[in-house]
Amino acid sequence: MKKAFTSMQQYCSYLLIILLCGFTLPTLAAAISDPQAPSPLYVKVMKNWATTTNFAENASQVAVDKFERDLKKDPQLANYVSKPLLLDLKQFFYELFNSQETMLALASAYSEYYSIDELQELVKFYETPLGKKLISTHPALSLKTQAIGDQMLKNKEKDYIEIVAKYIAKNARSQSE
Predict the structure, then answer these.
(1) How much is the pLDDT for 35?
(2) Does the keyword Signal apply (predicted)?
(3) How far apart are CA 107 and CA 47, in angstroms?
(4) What is the mean pLDDT of each successive set of 10 residues along the chain, which is 177 residues long?
(5) Are 20 and 76 found together in one domain?
(6) I need a labelling partner for 14 at 20 to 30 A (CA). Which of 33, 145, 147, 154 fits?
(7) In the chain, what are the helix, strand and coil shares in percent, each to the nearest 5?
């Protein structure tokens, strides 16, 4: 009986090792192939952040609003802007921004700046009234901020072109020598 128990113990040990290898080797292989890849736990917290902040919804709305604004600037393209087009684009962007691929990319980017504990703190902040207000106003403020930047750049176009021209001229002189 003792020998059978030992054999069963060995069998279970081997089975456990095989199962652990089967589940962990793909994760280890991914980590080895991309040492910068965030951990599965980090990706899970990133998904929680994205859900809490309505990331996919807000990002898709910003993308569609920018697309619509840019198209309406061109009289020839403005005729193509329609509610069905914008709804289809919003759905496309929502699915894209809510995808696992996007979560992995976001997790990779955020992990360069935030530890997992800090990301969890951000999630807690976004669950507060002020955090929720920031989430709800972010799409509109993003568009307004971009429009302000565009207008400021347009107003100062001559100034920044002079700066760029100075370096182009300097580069042209050094290449001709």
Answers:
(1) 55
(2) yes
(3) 9
(4) 45 42 43 68 96 93 88 84 91 96 95 96 96 91 89 90 86 76
(5) no
(6) 33
(7) 85, 0, 15
Please return the burial class of 80, using the count of CB atoms within 10 Å of its CB with bins 0-12, 13-18 and 19+: exposed
List the domain range (segments joined by +) for residue 12: 1-35
Question: What pLDDT is attached to residue 29?
Answer: 44
Task: State residue 32's pLDDT score.
Answer: 42
| Same structural domain, 107 and 161 | yes
Are 125 and 42 members of one domain? yes
Residue 111 CB partners (closer than 8 Å, separation 6+): 36, 38, 42
Q: Is 60 exposed, middle or buried (0-12, 13-18, 19+ CB in 10 A)?
A: buried
- How much is the pLDDT for 34? 58
Instruction: Give yes or no: residues 15 and 80 share one domain.
Output: no
Read off the amino acid at residue 130.
L
User: For the chain, what is the domain count?
Assistant: 2
pTM above 0.85, yes or no: no
Same domain, 142 and 171: yes
- 110 and 24 belong to one structural domain: no
Q: Please give the pLDDT value at position 143.
A: 83
- Do 15 and 69 share a domain, yes or no? no
